[in-house]
Amino acid sequence: MLFADPAHDVLSVSELNRLARQLLEEGVPPAWISGEISNLTLAASGHAYFSLKDASAQLRCVMFRNRVAALGLKLREGLQVELKGQVTLYEARGDFQINVETLRTAGLGRLFEAFERLKARLAAEGLFATERKRPLPAHPRAIGIVTSPAAAALRDVVTTLRRRMPSIPVVLYPAPVQGDGAAARLAEAVAAANRRNEVDVLIVCRGGGSIEDLWAFNEEVLARAVAVSRLPVISGVGHETDFTICDFVADQRAPTPTAAAELVSPNREQLLLNTEMGRRRLERAWARLFTDKTQQLDYLARRLVHPREKLQRQTERLHSLEARLKERLTTLLEARRWAVERAAHRLERQRPDVAVRYAALGHAADRMARGVHQLIHRHQGKIERLDATLAALNPEAVLNRGYAIVQKRDGTPVKSPTQLRHGEAVTLRLAEGDAGARIDLAPGQQTELPF
To answer: Structure pTM?
Structure first.
């Protein structure tokens, strides 16, 4: 029995929820629970709200800001975790939930593992290669949209396209964006757009959601349909933080459906502004060209004259040149005549007097002859004096006075008796010839020879 007093058998909602919370918190101790994170919401307050699920059930979880900050782990959709928390009841809404105290990774979630396997396989096949991606048309004739007619993303895309370029037709290729068979229906819509050939570019889009909600855009059938599409495909699935296989295969990814519409459509206001600016530049260029051509026409008109007038002008110019040439020749001849006259005058002044020069030359010859005669006479006297001196010093003159030169047999002149020995034969050189003699020394004059 909950109450002993029958008067209290009727409970209010608040009382019942409070009682249930007390029973849960007192009766179920904190425990470790494993599961996969889904429907994750990170609030502006810093709290984290998500569902923890397995193959057959799920429960709500809340993790408060201080515990999220101390976690050191980034929460994300599909993450397989093990958490410990208090089982409780949120009284205001009567929601059964777990207040998470701590959390740890238990490995990649089932959906996330499937996502990574398919991503790796398609990347190995080259479906994500940059070189196979095509540029989006700058001015498409028509734009195709593959999404659900009831999707909020469709309204956002159409509103953006109408605002930016209302003249471009929009064609919807309807297909469900979640649930069983959604991926195959989306792939068929992409193939239908290619078969009909009525648009130039294709937007595949839907709004945000959990990884389960977006799973149709992670299936292989849609990825291969986008890869073989003849039309350029832009993927605008979920929010900016959401990534799907379709994003990697598409020719371009947009963070949101609205951004996809902005990427694929030209901006009407910007085009009008560019057109107006181009028109003004063209007007200025045309006005400048018209002014230039008008001035050129005026210049050519001034140059355009009648042939008779042109011939007359040329005749007048020829006469003027002829007069100038005659005047120039006359001036030149006059200048040359004056130059010749000045040169003749200078030559006349500088021409020598031949008679005076002859007389000067005669005087110079007389002076030269007298000088030579005096020089010869002076040198002859000097020679005669030298001859007398030489004659006085001549040895033959001494011999003529009766002297003789005594020489040994080898021609050595004898200057001292010490050079002679008794009985030595010598030669006497006389004025009129030579004679032989033998030395006869007195006994006191004998000299001992060194040998």
So the answer is: 0.45
Contact status, residue 414 vs residue 397, Cβ threshold 8 Å: no
Give per-residue pLDDT as tens, 53-107: 988 899 999 999 998 888 767 888 888 888 899 999 888 888 899 999 988 776 5
List alpha helices for 140-267, DSSP H: 152-164, 182-196, 220-227, 245-249, 257-264
Is-contact 209 178, C-beta < 8 A? yes
What fold, for 6-108? Answer: OB fold (Dihydrolipoamide Acetyltransferase, E2P) (2.40.50)
Phi and psi angles of residue 325, each rounded to the nearest 5 degrees, phi first: -70, -45
Phi-psi region of 315 (alpha: psi -120 to 50; beta: other; left: phi over 0): alpha
For the segment 310-336, what is each residue's pLDDT rounded down to a tens digit? 888 888 899 899 999 999 999 999 999
Nearby residues of 106 by Cβ (< 8 Å), 6 or more positions away: 34, 80, 81, 82
Query: Stretch 334-359: mean pLDDT, rounded?
Result: 83
At residue 108, the pLDDT reads: 45
Question: Quick check: 194 pLDDT over 90?
Answer: yes
Tell me the CATH number of domain 114-266, given options 2.60.120.560, 3.50.50.60, 2.40.420.20, 3.40.50.2300: 3.40.50.2300
Q: State the DSSP string of 306-358.
A: -HHHHHHHHHHHHHHHHHHHHHHHHHHHHHHHHHHHHHHHHHHHH---HHHHH
First-residue to last-residue Cα distance in the chain: 184
Q: What is the DSSP letter of 271?
A: H
